[in-house]
Amino acid sequence: MGGYGWISLTTDYGTFDGFVASCHGVIARIAPDVRVIDVTHHVPPADVPRGAAVLAQTAPHLPESVHVAVVDPGVGTARRPIAIGTPNGVLVGPDNGVLIWASEVLGGIDEVVQVANKDWFLGDMSRTFHGRDLFAPAAAHLATGAALSDAGPSVDADTLVRLADPVVAVGDGWLEAEVMTVDRFGNVQLAAGGATLRALGADLLIGGNVRARRGTTFQDVKPGELLVYEDSAGRVAIAVNGGRAVVVLSVRPGDVVRIAER
Amino acid sequence: MGGYGWISLTTDYGTFDGFVASCHGVIARIAPDVRVIDVTHHVPPADVPRGAAVLAQTAPHLPESVHVAVVDPGVGTARRPIAIGTPNGVLVGPDNGVLIWASEVLGGIDEVVQVANKDWFLGDMSRTFHGRDLFAPAAAHLATGAALSDAGPSVDADTLVRLADPVVAVGDGWLEAEVMTVDRFGNVQLAAGGATLRALGADLLIGGNVRARRGTTFQDVKPGELLVYEDSAGRVAIAVNGGRAVVVLSVRPGDVVRIAER
Amino acid sequence: MGGYGWISLTTDYGTFDGFVASCHGVIARIAPDVRVIDVTHHVPPADVPRGAAVLAQTAPHLPESVHVAVVDPGVGTARRPIAIGTPNGVLVGPDNGVLIWASEVLGGIDEVVQVANKDWFLGDMSRTFHGRDLFAPAAAHLATGAALSDAGPSVDADTLVRLADPVVAVGDGWLEAEVMTVDRFGNVQLAAGGATLRALGADLLIGGNVRARRGTTFQDVKPGELLVYEDSAGRVAIAVNGGRAVVVLSVRPGDVVRIAER
Prior knowledge:
Three copies of one chain form a homotrimer. By secondary structure, chain A is α+β, with helices and mostly antiparallel strands. The first copy, chain A, is built from six helices and 14 strands. In chain A, strands 8-9-13-12-11-10-14 form a seven-stranded mixed beta barrel. A six-stranded mixed β-sheet of chain A has the order 2-1-3-5-4-6, with helices on both faces. In chain A, helix 1 packs parallel to helix 4 (130-143).
């Protein structure tokens, strides 16, 4: 039934070992015509919400794919390996929440199955490397056209593990939101959607005492000044023109930041 | 009109976020048969000369490609997005100098256009991520055979932003040159071309007091000794056999180093 | 005669410079239909045993390939560039031991040749970048179907440089083994094969005073406790549930670790 020409990989494996290459290799052996896009392999070890966020922000820009996400501190335990069908692709990974946000941006959950087809697993399956031995081969079989129902029994979507929603609160002239991520440029992305910004004026205070301005691009403020803007993922973010907002604000993912009119 | 089978990417996006994968995805959606070579995504943030240098030193070894370089501290401002046609490939990126040195090694500038075709841009173009929303789609369209003139209006090559030439001075028995880059092995590459070495003897002083020898390979000197040689990019470089020249010399890109006969 | 659809690359080049991309480019120019899997480019500079180990642990999971390994502190000296034929792929790299362990896991050495065919080398071969100028083009020619004997003269396998075997000793209720590698999760892999574990009981001491348990997956022990297990490469390894064994044990590659029943 068609299948997919592409598989994406999102892991916390890093690139110093051969883990990622082994996943590429397993896919190439099963599905040699399928191509792989590496989303990132630098999710901080075991940081499930970070893996979930980076996949959700990237997947809409990829071709229709089987998206594999392996941030899996429970590997080898009873946590279920699952595959989620959506209107715009399939998601494969552990049932620990890492796939949930991506399923929402891909149009919602159509169908969930537990990946349990032992014919698909690598012969001598390890207890500690399901990326190579279970998730990559399952993705490869699904990409070559296997039906979701071939992967294993149906799972009730209501039983899936879900992540806590990040904190977002909006009031009259202010918003408070959790830091989702800090990118390579030191820009601080909040969980609040960009639309929440429209109710705020141009002159803002962050955390009560740091002055900032609302704008759309880094050079809407002078060098060294702070900008509050809607970023390329549609979230509220804070940047410094020519600098690193993360240093100025001294925050990290999970902290809550308050932005208010001044 | 032919087009190109390959696109290369050179950015300062890093690989911890999904930025690079989004560019791959946009290319895959528009030009699924085109293949991508990542030159590097670890240009130091906003370091335009470093991005220009690494692309210029790598592009001649790639197949004929559309080369995209995005080191773009002025994203979202009036700086022009451009595409440069050369006899050996096309270059796409911001008009801030990052493409210039590559255009020279690819045979010179045949034609320049401003990338302005809104039909090519991603629907809801962000102000801060032109790699995904403007440069990657433009490169994909050019790779699939679109003419440069389809991208937008012609630009006078004399109006392009150019980088300052790095310092190189050569005299009788000496040369002075700016440090271009320090590679993973601690080798220090200077801006001077390798031919400038031929006028020097074998026994050299670096910076007036560090002894070195001219040679061609690391083991032309004893372990721990300094070697001055023409590197694989055709530049004068300084290495230590079994060590790191950057530590011995304590220099960084932009510093000027003097090499003289002793 | 067939050739190979895939080339793998294992180097110490890092990804900050354009070295890896140049190798990809050279391959693409000679063998445009061949696809490349990057095993890793983060072998510590000049660490030949580490390069040999990561390739040997990864290659069995890749499709039949020409595997290129370039960890080559002797580049430009008399060390021989070689290609090794095995029943399950070809290995290309310097004769310094980096290919040996992979040749064993791929079924043993069928044939060795010195890579000496000057028609294959890049025109103006550098003395310091044989990855781009010699090994990548040789691999590309072999992948497109050239015979090993076209690469150059036969080499007696008994003359190949070999690495010292890592320390492994097993006694009644104990084993001692060298640390092979520490992965991104802080798990410590020993040189001992997983089978050596079966003779040990469940309650163990590491290094005489650190308590650990034998098991198969991280959650066989409580959070913070140490686990001794057979890892996904079939080696004895030490992990901490939710922590980093490398920190608890304070070891690094080359150290010898003793595990004994308590």
